[in-house]
Amino acid sequence: MRRFARWLVVMVAWMTAFATTGAAPPAAASAAQPAAWTIIESANFRLCAIADRQTLDALAATCEATRDQLCGKWLGKSPQSSWDVKCYIVLHPTAQSYLNEVGQGQMTAGSSLIEFAADRLITRRIDLRADHPQGYAGALAHELTHVVLAERFITRQIPRWADEGMAVLADGPAKQRLHLADLEQARRQRQMFRLVELVNLQQYPSLDRQGTFYGQSTSLVKFLVQRGSPEQFVDFVAQSTTDGYETALRRIYGIETLGQLEQQWLAELDRQTTVGRAEAASPAGTQDRSLALKSN
Q: Which of the ends of the chain has fewer CB neighbours closer than 10 A, N or C?
């Protein structure tokens, strides 16, 4: 989940303070004894958690390695220098500590905040739940994808579908399957977004359609990435923000219109559904299901 704040004019005073000095976030600090919070820094991250130094050092190393991997994947190169504004990562011990920062009703494993002022990135922040049932490793990679991509979209807003679709591809296979299952359900119920609607969404859809949104966004990003490369896809998204989708489609993928893209994408979804049903109906598929039932 990414919390958007763009073209920021006035910064909240306490956020500026902890982003620059390394002090513990006030809401997080009030959730436990302030002295229990430990803060360390690496080249690109400032980490705050109620944890021992060894745990934080390991998390910092994971953050640095994940940043390098994501930059190489989506931007086509390993970072040549450190971020001038470090990414602040808060590992919350409880759901309530987490919600105090990201907002009530956001029962997610992680959230990112990226803020800009005068075409300059001034805040990188990721909040994570240490107590989440599924852990926070996948959420870290997901949210860090948002942070890395912000480097390419400082002067223009990255489309929501592309931002979230790329981030979901950093999630684990199980999480991705859940999103694609939401897509399949929406297809059966004929509740999918039309492509022109999906790519032009300026805000997240209502809660009852967010599963569909994430499923479609993930599927569409994966479809286009497989036609070229991750870096090529980012080029397409960047060009679409300045020249429009159809111009960018022709230049990058040789596709004339959004309608043509929609037809090709839906045809691929049909093919995948047919293959999946055939595999499920095969003797091997039957055996796999039997083994799954026994293991449960």
A: C
- pLDDT surpassing 60 at residue 288: no
Q: In which residue are the tokens 């694609």 written?
A: 180
Summarised one tens digit per residue, pLDDT across range 95-105 is 999 999 988 76
How far, in Å, CA of 104 to CA of 235, rounded? 36
**Nearest to residue 26, comparing CAs of 115, 100, 107?**
100
Single-letter amino acid code for the residue at 218: T
Give the tokens for residue 5. 């704040």
Kindly tell me the burial class for residue 106, based on how many C-beta atoms sit within 10 Å of its own C-beta (0-12, 13-18, 19 or more). middle
In angstroms, the first-to-last Cα distance of the chain is 31
CA neighbours closer than 13 Å in the CB half-sphere of residue 193:
24
Cα separation, 78 vs 74, in Å, equals: 10
Instruction: Please write the tens of the pLDDT for every residue from 114-125.
Output: 999 988 899 999
Sheet holding 2-5, edge to edge: 2-5, 110-117, 120-129, 87-92, 45-49, 38-41
